[in-house]
Amino acid sequence: MKPEHTSSSKNSGMSRMLFALACFLAIAGLVYFFYVKKTPAPASPSHANQIPKLVIPEKGAYTGAYVDFGDAEDDVTLDAVEKFEHITGKKLAIVAFSSFWGQRSFPTRQLEIVTDHDAIPLIYWSPWDIPYEQDHGPDAFSLHSILAGKWDAYIDAWADSAKAYKRPMLVAWGLEMNGVWFPWSGHFYGAGKPVLGQPGKFIGPEIYKKAYHYVIDRVRARGVTNIQWVFHVNNYSYPQDVWNLARQYYPGSDYVDWLALSVYGKQYPAEPWVDFKDLLDYPYTEMAALDPNKPIMLAEWGVGEFPLIAGDDKAQWIREGFERMSTHYPRLKAAVFWHERWQNPEGNYSNLRVNSSPESLKAYREGVANPYWLDKPIWKY
User: Fold this and answer.
1) Could you say which DSSP state residue 236 is in?
2) Count H helices, E strands: the chain?
3) How distant, in Å, are the alpha carbons of 175, 257, 278 from that of 54?
4) Is 87 helix (H, G, I), strand (E, B) or coil?
5) What contacts 10, CB < 8 A, 6 or more positions away?
6) Which residues contact 65 (CB under 8 A, 6 or more apart)?
7) How far, in whole angstroms, is CA 253 from its chain's centroid?
8) pLDDT, tens digit, for every residue of 167-209?
């Protein structure tokens, strides 16, 4: 409370005392805010040397987002995260960003921002080189070069930094390999050519699985125990051929903690509009069949807004997404919204941000407000 000033010497002395006390309390408050509140509480003595593990919620699912972190998808800032939380009205339990191999670094700064915010990081760890262009085939980090040991030093250094960090993280390596846009896609490594003597197996997916095993085995060999591995595919394979289905790429349950999907609605003006139900019903069943127990997440979900095109309704798509995720897919335990806007070569824009219109933002706010969507990770030791 601010002291009141009077002409009385007694009251003047009391005022000085109150003023001094107020100053002390203000300084103490600043110390608390910057050095206590902003610093995560240390583990209790019984947990001092233990790394907590993310609990799969029995009821509900974690809400998360990727929040437009720049061209390399790694310019994580607390300001961007908090702005997203402010406009949507809910804290994020998961914050996603990329760690492209072309950066040749471990994302310690990004991890600290996320974990200090009491969220769990989801890292898209992608073997991709500058300039990060899609549809260009293998680059310096080809699966063959990985399997030949060319990038062992980088993998080991990344793993050592992950171990030293001592806090939990989710990592998706080589995501959406069942498409044709990323250089690690099976499409570029033999595609549907059969493996001799192994009926039902195909060269493209088998090379991908070997590389997946190689990388994860090498990380684990460095003693890393604070990573939960995410097997992350596109919801529908492209091409939708037997050789390219998600099950062909599945590295086995010993290498996977979460099964994950990218589920996007319309992203470009010329694309058709597709309802959320049709984008997830079959892919969810396909993923659930890979393992009877693994949790499933939407590691990416979103849709563009094209207000001049008749029949498109982003707000309704978002409402349908939240409703169906909370009622139709019992093993779905996390969903990460892709909040980004970009300009296309034609000069038009793809706006996937939650606030692309007042109606879309309202739909997102109302959907995520459901207590079903958990805003903090649950930990166990």
Assistant:
1) S
2) 10, 13
3) 21, 11, 30
4) helix
5) none
6) 84, 92, 94, 95, 96, 336, 337, 338, 339
7) 21
8) 999 999 999 999 999 999 999 999 999 999 999 999 999 999 9
